[in-house]
Amino acid sequence: MGGICSTYNGSATATGNVGILTTVNPENGTNMDYSDGISARINGLSRTGTGVKGTIAVNWSGGTVSQATGTHGTVDVSAGTATEVWGARGNVTGSTGTIGTAYGMSGQVSGTLSTSGFTNAYGMLAESKHYGTVFNSCGGVGISTWVNGSNVTTSCGLRAGSSWFNDNTGPQTSSVQNSFGLSASATGGSVGNFSVFGANAGTGLNDWSAFFPGRTFSPGGIWTSSDPELKTNIQEIDGPLDLVMQLHPKRYEFLTEQYPHLGLPAGEQFGFLAPELGEVFPQLVTDAVQPAEVDSAGNEVFPATAFTAVNLNPLLPLAIAAIQQQQASIQSLQETLTQMQEQLAACCTNSADQRVLQAGSGAATAMETDLRIIPNPVADRTELRYTLANEGRVRLEITDATGRTMLVQDEGARASGSHVYEWSTTLLAAGTYHCALYVNDEQLVKKAVKLNNR
Length: 454
What we know:
alpha+beta, four-stranded antiparallel β-sheet, three-stranded antiparallel β-sheet, 4 helices, elongated
C-alpha cells in the first residue's frame, strides 16, 4: 500500500531515469514562506513507516550506472533571496510518543557479505563547494542542543566511530589497513589551518577542550602559550632545589585490566603519586571524571570513573632552576676549596707562619684578623672561627644570596686572639651564604655553602 507508488523501468539507452520528479517553481512576484517539492505524512502505523522512500535497483548484470541516488534534493536559488536553504533535510519530532532511537538523517552503505566490491564507501558525505564569497564554509555541521526540562545522558554535537561489527559468523577476518573514528585535515588557509579545533573556557571538574583516553601521538610537539604579554607577577623561582628534593618519584604499573576504558598504558611506568605531588604543588593536581560509556541502546558499558589527574609540564622549568642552583653551589664550593688550598700552601711556605705553629719557639709574630668557617660546606651546624689582631668591638652578620639578612650576632668587645661562634644552619635552605666579620666597623666577608640537612 502506498500513497504514491511509482516504478520506472528505464531503457538501456536512457541517460536519466527518475521514478518521481517534482519541482516547485515560484512565479515572478510570488513570495512563499514555505514550499516542498514532495511532502509526505503517514499516520497510525503499527510496524514500520517511511514518509518518502527512494530506491534505485541495479540488478541487471549487464547494466552500468555512473551515478545512482536513492533520494536527491536540490534547491536552486539563481535569483531572489532565500533565508535558509536545505538540499536535503530530515526531521524527527516527538511529543508524548516513545522513540527508541531517533535519527534526524541517516546514511548507510551496505553490501552482501564477502561478495560486494566498493572502491570508496561513505555512509554520508557532506560537501561545501562554492566559487563566490562565503562567510563560513563547513562540509558538515553537527549540533546537539536542549531546552529547560530536558533529561539528556550524553549530548554529542558530532559523534564518529570506526570499529569491527561482530555479526556472529565467526572470528574477525576482515582486512582493514587504517581505521579512523574521525579524520580531519585543513589546508589553504591564509591566516591559519586548524585540522581539529576544540575550545572550552571552563575550569570545572570536567571542562576540557580535548579529552583523549589512551596514547596520544604528536611528533610535532605539544605547544603552549608562553608570551610574556599574557603573564603577570613574573618572579624568579625561590629555592627550586629545596622544592625538587621534596618530590618522591615512583615506578609502578597501571591497573589496565580493571580499567580498560581509561586507556591506561601497559608495562612499567615512572611518575608521581598524585597525593604526594599535591602536598608540594597543589596547583598541579586536579580531580577529573571520565563519563560513562553507553551503547546504541542506552545500556551502560562502562560506568563513570573518577580519578585524580596531574600536570607535569611545570616541573621542567623547576628542574632546570634546581640544576642551575646546584651548579652555583658546586662552583662556590670549588672556589672555597681553592682558597683553602691557597691558604694552606701559603702557610706551609711562609717561615713566619711556620714559627707560629711551632710551639715553644719563643718567636713573637704579628697576629692578623681573619675569619674561617669550619666545616664548609655546612650540613646542619658549623663554627665561625675568627682571629683579632687587636682588641675591638665584634659583630657577625650572615646574609643569603639575595642579600637578605639571616643572622646578626653582637659579640661585644673582644680581646685580641682567637674566638669561636657556633652557627646552627638546620632551618636554612640549601644555597650560598655570606658571613661577615665586623671589627670596629671594618668588614671581612667569607662564603659558606649550605647543603641539605642529613
